[in-house]
Amino acid sequence: MKAWQTRFLYFLVLNAAVQYVTSLEEELADSIFGNFLDPIKDVLDPKDGANQTVAKFSLRKPSDPDNDLCYIVPGKPDSLAACTFNSTSKTFLVIHGWTLSGMFESWVAKLVSALYEREQTANVIVVDWLNSAQNHYVVAAQNTKVVGQEIARFIDWIEETT
Ligand SMILES: *[C@@H]1O[C@H](CO)[C@@H](O)[C@H](O)[C@H]1NC(C)=O
Ligand SMILES: *[C@@H]1O[C@H](CO)[C@@H](O)[C@H](O)[C@H]1NC(C)=O
């Protein structure tokens, strides 16, 4: 074989090898990260019809901020009245972060009480996304995007409705 033919053949073999390795890597990445990212995909693209949300919004009462929960459901104006949401008062949203325990940390109730001490007629709403926050940190961090979008929609809805 002439030198250029050898070089061309070498190039072809090398190219094929690189492509083979690349496809193996992609397959491997799919099988590792594909499974790993599946729960996120489910959260980001909820199936049609299954309009469950990641975040829940509980309006707390000054008397018993830990136990007296009333859920405000976006799209359901009745829930505002049922929770005695005061549309002429200030509204505070308390939002937790990543959690190992899956429970509210003690600062949440303390902050709710402190806010009610300052603003007796306020609406102090705790955003509960514990189910999605109790996860591997990377997954929980990814979930914050959806939580943020739901909170934005919640605020828009409150503004339009009250
Ligand atoms: C899902 O959304 C539809 C339309 O927005 C609504 O009519 C239905 O009540 C919702 N389902 C639940 C379980 O909230
Ligand atoms: C709602 O809030 C306003 C202003 O903060 C207050 O004057 C009023 O008493 C509150 N209403 C109720 C039912 O608490």
Write the layout of secondary structure elements.
Elements: H1 3-44, E1 56-60, E2 69-72, H2 77-82, E3 91-95, H3 106-118, E4 123-128, H4 130-133, H5 137-161
Parallel strand pairs: 3-4
Antiparallel strand pairs: 1-2, 1-4
Helix pairs in contact: 1-5
Instruction: Assign a percent range to the helix content.
Output: 55-70%
Total of DSSP H or I helical runs spanning 4+ residues = 5
How is the CATH topology of the largest domain named?
Rossmann fold
Q: Give the name of the CATH superfamily of the largest domain.
A: Alpha/Beta hydrolase fold, catalytic domain
Q: How much of the polypeptide forms β-strand, as a percent range?
A: 5-15%
Largest sheet: 4 strands, mixed
Strand order of the largest sheet: 2-1-4-3
Number of domains: 2
Radius of gyration in whole Å, from Cα?
Answer: 26 Å
Architecture of the largest domain, according to CATH? 3-Layer(aba) Sandwich
